[in-house]
Write a structure and sequence with these properties.
The longest helix has 26 residues. The protein is mainly α. Helix content is 64%, strand content 2%. This is J domain-containing protein.
Length: 202
């Protein structure tokens, strides 16, 4: 009995801290506190509603390529079928409306977001269209990522008698050459091969 009361008190303390964070707009911190409260005493009045509202609000802030991720709103996965997502929707609905605890202030936004999620995920046609749009956005993002990683190669003008392999061969890396080495290279590059200038035979 004493242990149960201690767990209830611990849950009540964390729930109050979660409520303060919720009112301040710190939804992530509020979710952490509400999770701890649920661990100690999940039957605490008002805790189910608070967790459901935070799930919707936090999920709404998670964008997918700049758009609302409706799967995150309901805590669902894209691989789930419509009946499974409908079960998640009904559970959130019951937690948000049937909890015996005190009502939350400022839940209009969460209720509006929650209601909009039905037309995107909870029917076959809406989910199919939404998945197609997500797939197109994902492909667009992948193309943009590949184009940002592409580094164009500048080819120099081909010289006479240059093969195709030589034209596309990248230049060697630059390095520092000492004075003596530079002189030896310069002399070797200007050396003229010996030519026999003897008298031409008659």
């Amino acid at each position: 009995m004493l242990q149960s009361e201690g767990l209830r008190n611990a849950a009540r303390v964390n729930k109050e801290a979660a409520m303060e964070c919720y009112k301040a707009g710190r939804f992530g911190r509020a979710k952490d506190k509400a999770y701890v409260a649920s661990y100690f005493f999940p039957e605490l009045p008002g805790l189910r509603r608070l967790n459901a509202v935070l799930q919707v609000l936090i999920g709404y802030d998670k964008k997918f390529n700049g758009s609302v991720d409706w799967y995150a709103v309901l805590g669902a996965y894209p691989t789930e079928d419509v009946p499974t997502i409908q079960k998640r929707y009904r559970k959130l609905f019951l937690d948000m409306t049937m909890d015996d605890g005190e009502s939350l202030v400022g839940t209009y936004k969460a209720n509006k977001i929650f209601s909009d999620s039905w037309k995107f995920l909870c029917n076959e046609k809406g989910k199919k269209l939404y998945d197609m749009r997500r797939r197109d956005q994902l492909q667009l993002r992948e193309r943009q990522l590949r184009s940002s990683l592409f580094v164009p190669v500048v080819l120099s003008a081909p010289k006479p008698n240059m093969s195709n392999e030589q034209m596309v061969q990248p230049p060697p890396p630059s390095f520092r050459v000492s004075g003596g080495e530079r002189k030896r290279k310069a002399s070797s590059s200007t050396t003229v091969p010996h030519v026999n200038k003897g008298r031409k035979k008659q």
